[in-house]
Design a protein that fits this description.
The protein is 16% helix and 43% strand. By secondary structure, the chain is α+β, with helices and mostly antiparallel strands.
Length: 235
């Protein structure tokens, strides 16, 4: 996935009210950008960090700029826009990068399903009409090569795990795919110390037949693309 226009570099001043961030551009101008991330963004929102913004070029938006990338203290670029996760994963599936999900003829997004009024991020169908429900989770929290999810208590994430387990009981294929928008991760694990309920449900889902996989992205100011499968450790 390539950004439609060149990103704008700046320095993070503060993130606040969850969805807003003040950033000083290279010319000294201070702007407020939309932050499309509902998580805690631990390690990704330190004032003084180098960041990049996209410009929607839409004059009707109150905040036309969106915060896309941040550079970690070790110089690793991290994609923090969770709204990009689904398009990134969809592109990787259609491009054959996600090898376990090859062979499907149709991909539909935001499909209503389940008993808890959910929307599947992606629904795949093969030529015979068999379905595969895919939930995508964005991973930005990491340390010592291990990506952790979630970075805040996620009742929504737990709901999605219950829905995926229900799909397996109905005979459908169900997948939880961690989209890791950073290049310094080789393994993904549940962040039990942050949300123990989610960790327990994730293990239950794996035992129930939900396929749990993770893919790491190549991240640059030009674009973000999944390129490698990562290990998942539930122990």
């Amino acid at each position: 996935m390539r950004f439609a226009h060149p990103l704008i570099e700046g320095t993070l001043l503060q993130r606040y009210k969850r969805f807003l961030a003040d950033i000083r551009l290279q010319d000294g101008t201070v702007v407020t950008a939309h932050t499309a991330n509902t998580g805690a963004m631990t390690g990704c929102s330190t004032p003084g960090s180098r960041v990049w913004l996209s410009d929607s070029r839409n004059p009707r938006r109150r905040y036309p700029l969106t915060w896309e990338l941040v550079e970690s203290p070790r110089g690793v670029l991290i994609g923090i826009n969770t709204q990009l996760s689904n398009p990134i994963v969809k592109e990787a599936i259609t491009g054959g990068v996600v090898t376990p999900l090859r062979g499907y003829q149709k991909i539909t997004t935001e499909v209503r399903y389940g008993s808890e009024n959910s929307r599947a991020d992606l629904m795949l169908e093969d030529a015979s009409g068999k379905r595969c429900f895919v939930e995508v989770k964005n991973v930005t929290l990491a340390g010592k090569g291990i990506g952790r999810f979630p970075d805040a208590v996620s009742t929504r994430g737990s709901k999605h795990l219950r829905e995926l387990m229900a799909m397996t009981r109905q005979g459908h294929r169900a997948v939880l795919l961690f989209c890791v928008q950073r290049e310094d991760v080789h393994t993904v694990s549940p962040a039990d110390e942050i949300d123990p309920r989610y960790g327990a449900l994730l293990r239950e889902a794996g035992d129930a037949g939900v396929e749990i996989m993770a893919y790491g992205a190549r991240v640059s100011p030009h674009g973000i693309a999944l390129e490698r499968r990562l290990a998942v450790c539930l122990s």
